[in-house]
Amino acid sequence: MLTSGDRTVGDCLAVLDEVAGLGLRHIGFKDVGVPPDVLGVLHRGIKRIGATSYLEVVSLTPESTRRSARTARHLGVDRVLGGGDASAVLDEIGGAGIEFFPFAGRPQGHPTELKGSPEEIAADCRRADALGCAGVDLLAFRSVAAPLDLVRAAREALGGKLIVAGSVDSPARIRDLAALGVDAFTIGTALFERRFISGEPSLQAQVAAALAAGTA
Hints:
With 216 residues, the protein is of the alpha/beta class.
């Protein structure tokens, strides 16, 4: 994710150029942090290098969620993550060929904190399946509960793909997620703050380390 602190980074276009040669095949951004015209240029750049594009919706009210979903449809992204109203997003992107991964649980605030028990997470996963979603976006490490308990509950209940987003900031966390059958994770802030690999000042090296951890 070309994001830090739950916002698309202001120099996202330069960052994309910097990491484009690393073999990234999944690149995303938030719908806040830069103007819409920059998002358009960014998305075209992501598609130009052959990557799957993601827009993660941080809006939580029905109307703001709809605006974000309309932005996703206008840009033509491949996948939408998050959003506080799954039905509203599906209404906006229906027929556009966009895969949707709604939040499971109750995200609140910005940066986002997740509330919800394992049982509630499981129920949301079953609901996402019933709506025809491609999977769910789980903010496990932003949870007030035990993160891996939520991951287990989601994986057991969900028929689609499970993406864990937010505060995936170490190789150890990636290994934990892989062991529990998570399909994918997002990472942004830990790379931009140079925290994924301690003592490594290069963004390229941070990204390369995350790629290696994700395919180990």
